[in-house]
Amino acid sequence: MLDLIIRNGKCYIDGELKEVDVSIKDKKIHQIGQISEEAKETIDASGHTVLPGCIDTQTHFREPGSTDTEDLHSGSRAAIAGGITSVFEMPNTNPPTSNKKEFQRKLDLAKNRMYCNYAFYFGATADNADDLASLKDLEGCCGIKLFAGSSTGNLLVAEEDDIDKVF
């Protein structure tokens, strides 16, 4: 038996908005289409668009450092309330997430405190360009963030030679 069926909603499939049913089993999407199986719960989504969850690729939860406005815990909780199931958090914290020690610190701060899926950007600096290639398989890293216009701390990489080194 399925856990949930969301019936009569519209989903984007192959670039078109189509009316379909979505079934959930064991906390995962099980089937999309016409579903004839039974479920413990059914939701009628007529007139609504059904999304599996959205990703916010630029969050600023400011932890560590400026947690008076938001932190990893409260920011991820707000994300879930708004339908965001995954976040990519920026490195412009205090101190910046621009070395492996601070990156690991951020992972440790997030453990068992975040409500959604998460990954963190590693901040490029004029001084860490040689280390960036070693991040290819760094668990929890969604990418390298290069601030070339403005940023805080040492995260601004404004000189063309430094930008070239980062690339």
Sum up the structure in keywords:
167 residues; 17% helix; alpha/beta; 4-stranded parallel β-sheet; 35% strand; TIM Barrel
Structure description:
The chain has 167 residues and is of the alpha/beta class. The protein has two domains: 2-44, no CATH class; 54-166, TIM Barrel (Alpha-Beta Barrel), CATH 3.20.20.140. Helices cover 17% and strands 35% of the residues. The protein contains three helices and eight strands; from the N terminus they run βββββαβαββα. The strands form two sheets. The protein has a four-stranded mixed sheet, with no helix packed on it. The longest helix has 11 residues, at 100-110. The protein is elongated and about 60 Å long. It starts with a strand and ends with a helix.
What's the tally of helices?
3
- Main sheet characteristics: 4 strands, mixed
CATH architecture of the largest domain: Alpha-Beta Barrel
Which whole number gives the mean pLDDT?
Answer: 93
Q: Would you tell me which CATH topology of the largest domain applies? A: TIM Barrel
SSE blueprint:
Layout: E1 2-13, E2 16-25, E3 28-33, E4 39-44, E5 54-59, H1 72-81, E6 84-89, H2 100-110, E7 117-123, E8 141-145, H3 160-166
Parallel strand pairs: 1-4, 5-6, 6-7, 7-8
Antiparallel strand pairs: 1-2, 2-3
Brief summary of the model shown:
This protein has helices at residues 72-81, 100-110, 160-166; strands at residues 2-13, 16-25, 28-33, 39-44, 54-59, 84-89, 117-123, 141-145.
